[in-house]
Amino acid sequence: MLLEAIYHRPKSNYAYAYDENTVHIRIRTKRDDMDQVFLLHCDKYNLHETGFTKVEMKKIASDTLFDYYQAEASPEHRRFAYMFQFIKGDQSVGMNEVGFVTDKQFDDATVLFATGLFEYPFLNAIDVNKPPQWVKDAIFYQIFPERFGNGDTSNDPENIDSWEEGTPERDNFFGGDLQGVIDHLDHLVELGINCIYFTPIFEATTNHKYDTVDYMKVDPHFGDNDLAKTLVDKCHEKGIKVMLDAVFNHSGYFFGPFQDVVENGEASKYKDWFYIREFPVVGDPKPNYHTFAFTGQMPKLNTEHPEVKEYLLEVARYWIEDIGCDGWRLDVANEVDHQFWREFRQVVKKANPEAYILGEIWHNSLPWLQGDQFDAVMNYPVTNSILEFFCKDVIDAEQFMGRLDAMYLAYPLNVNEVAFNLLDSHDTARLLTICNDDKKRMKLAATFQLTYMGAPCIYYGDEIGMNGGNDPDCRKPMVWDTEKQDHELFDFYKTMIRLRKENRALRDGSFNFLEAAQGSKHIVFERSADGDRFVIVMNAGEEAVEVTLPEGSYEVATGNGTVDGAKASVDKLEFVVLKAR
């Protein structure tokens, strides 16, 4: 055994409460080093009488260096003390909080307790990360309001470009508004969408609205607050939830308090709302105040300041409680202090305990996912892995599996179950363009997204074949001319969404890779829940493949592959979703 490779950390993604009665425990070992790994757990106050309960741990993932094991336990008294035992041939080694112990010490409770068991002292319900369960069933649809539909020409900005013929630029407008969304809700219902994610709708000067002028007011070119309430109500009537996008890291240059600082300098009562390095305020060419990146039009807010905090927390409450929205997506969330987010969560969850709090963070986000801040984050590492395997053909199946397993292990399961899985957005090239206009590769990426754990999000227009390069080309107006829409692609999305919604196993069932070999371009994985089981075979390669299935009989749920007994065949760049009978 290579003992140096063994790793465990209590109260982390290696040991966490899944719910108030269940603990998940993980441990890492050298790859292919152990025959068996056991979790030994007990009530620390009763170890002398009852001894340990011994549970064999299941290998849940492997990468090039390590194996990862997991077990769960439901301690009767919600107290949990534990250690590990490793078996390799005739070797047996234990590990507790202090280090490694011998076989002989296993039988001496006094020694074990004295030398330090790992502990989960008590499963306090308030400490458990409890994301809203509806997110497991959500199919998100991202709308960039300025480009989805123009339902009210009376509120158009001056000199808007042609909806059908204009070219998106960084600073032009097309007249999209909230009424345009209301007018096209039936399109989303037909597709199967049950939650809309809006990029910012608050008053701002740009077309993207990430430079907020007034957080309490809908941008007048989009409508007004009453219309926003009407939109939310109509969405709810159709079974669609609404998530708004907010920027609490920074405001826009024309935000009232910042303009007061610009005009009054050090005498402004708002000077401490921002990080002003010197007066007078200078924004160009290099701002003398902290900003988002180095963008002078986006001064950074001091969320540690009591007045700033009070204002922004009222914003958070108002749109959830008064307007009825169902969640927040939080821009540049990792640059705001943790204490603000803790108070933010308390305010939002008081207004609506089932509200979804989603952070935009591009790196490992565990510090924000302890149950006191966010429910989940945007799952960009998974996004990149899907694109690199299915669309760009730059990694093989083993690398793809390794990357997804790494992200799975980075967070507790209750976070992974509600992770936000997107493939493109207003910040990236469109999915079809990323796939070099290859619809087969696009369908592979979307199929994996719609059969993977977490909540999938479709960027507006992807479902009807819209393409576009990086910002601003990815922000073209929605195509409503039915003759220019790809109806076959729409039907594909509709079918996959319906399949996901009709089968819990594809939404929040267990996920296991069955085949993902080095150098290979095909994968096989399994989803299961409540006795239902699906096996999905996906071929991102240029040659047909035949795979051996787990024992059982299967029928084709969707896709272009075939099944014959224990074999499934899939042509190049195709997939098949098989349901076990």
UniProtKB/TrEMBL annotation:
<keyword id="KW-0326">Glycosidase</keyword>
<dbReference type="InterPro" id="IPR004185">
    <property type="entry name" value="Glyco_hydro_13_lg-like_dom"/>
</dbReference>
<keyword id="KW-0378">Hydrolase</keyword>
<feature type="domain" description="Glycosyl hydrolase family 13 catalytic">
    <location>
        <begin position="142"/>
        <end position="500"/>
    </location>
</feature>
<dbReference type="InterPro" id="IPR014756">
    <property type="entry name" value="Ig_E-set"/>
</dbReference>
<dbReference type="Pfam" id="PF02903">
    <property type="entry name" value="Alpha-amylase_N"/>
</dbReference>
<dbReference type="GO" id="GO:0004553">
    <property type="term" value="F:hydrolase activity, hydrolyzing O-glycosyl compounds"/>
</dbReference>
<dbReference type="InterPro" id="IPR013783">
    <property type="entry name" value="Ig-like_fold"/>
</dbReference>
<dbReference type="InterPro" id="IPR017853">
    <property type="entry name" value="GH"/>
</dbReference>
<dbReference type="InterPro" id="IPR006047">
    <property type="entry name" value="GH13_cat_dom"/>
</dbReference>
<dbReference type="Pfam" id="PF00128">
    <property type="entry name" value="Alpha-amylase"/>
</dbReference>
<dbReference type="GO" id="GO:0005975">
    <property type="term" value="P:carbohydrate metabolic process"/>
</dbReference>
<dbReference type="InterPro" id="IPR045857">
    <property type="entry name" value="O16G_dom_2"/>
</dbReference>
<dbReference type="InterPro" id="IPR013780">
    <property type="entry name" value="Glyco_hydro_b"/>
</dbReference>
<protein>
    <submittedName>
        <fullName>Alpha-glycosidase</fullName>
    </submittedName>
</protein>
